[in-house]
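hey so u asked for the seq, here:
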Amino acid sequence: SRRVPRVVALAVRVATQTTQMLWTVAVALPRPTHVLLQTPPCVPSFAVCWLVCFIRRAKFVIDWHNLAYTLMALKFGPSSPLVRVATMYERMMGRLGHAHLAVTDAMATWLHERWGIERGAIAVLHDAPPEFFRPSSPEETRALMRRLAPALTASPARVPGDCCDWRASLQGQRWREGRTALVVSSTSWTPDEDFGVLLDALTLYDEVATMADEDAMERYPDVLVVVTGKGPQRAHYESRMRSLRLNRVAVRTAWLESGDYPTLLGAADLGVCAHTSSSGLDLPMKVVDMFGCGLPVLAARYDVIHELVREDARFKGGSVTVGGARGKKKPVVRLPNRRRRAAKAPNGCLFGSPGELAAQLCGVLEGFGAGTSVAEEMRVRMRGELEANGGRNR
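ran it, structure tokens below
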């Protein structure tokens, strides 16, 4: 069967990695006092690092960024024997650590309550962006768009029709009014990121911006969405993108040089993250990087995301529906909490459905280009906070 070659290949890979790690840590490197292991992955690194620490009398420190068995479950299914074995292995070996670092408060609590790891041995260290994630200057933005123009034009996922390409011009240090809004989404194209939610939301936004009355059409900007990253589901979603027929929205995929990605985040007006976490306990590093650039984010809602995103509750629970009286199919945007008082210093919104995300896009981009939109106000404030804090998030 096809399962046998997969198991054999996995066994060969584990054996090879075990040999390489043992040689590197136990022989090639000087005797350590501590061995720090970031997980996932945990096979075979947990066993190898513990064995080296036992032999060389070093302390074993585990940096928990997620639970490896939950990622394996996405591929093999939660009831797979491999996943059950991986769960037991990770729990058993994880308990052998002398000290632990957790990426969220929720993960620290989970490790203590579910796997019996002593709470006093767990320290919570939230991720922080590297220093090169920062707001981009207008000159950097203009140079980046010139470099990306061929790639964005040639993207296999480009939208047919009037594609609203990037038309922003600079007048000194000011953007042109009425310019296209640049939205960035970084994805690994994996099952824990339902990218279809964003595509459905963009379709609804396009209907609102296209079919609204003339006054409303001026309030909603054209949108260029640049999607970065590589992964197993990319071809599937690019096929969906090619089938879209949009008038006010254009979608492009791009694989950027390492130095261009921070510049793109620093140049964007809004970020979107569909990550939902395989374990429900980790946080998306891509949002951390966006915040380092002073970029507000619309992120998928799940339990621990509140440790990172300060939600603007005015845009919670919104929806976009297509329908209306007398057979007209004009879309209706509902933001039932719009009149609520905004939370202190929000840095984004959280969505749970395409309709809610579409309503948030409408709500935060309304009035964009004139400096009056929520997205622009949020970005200006967040960049001011970065500057006041010496370029670092607090």
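The radius of gyration is 23 Å. The domain at 138-388 is CATH 3.40.50.2000 (Rossmann fold).
lmk if thats what u needed
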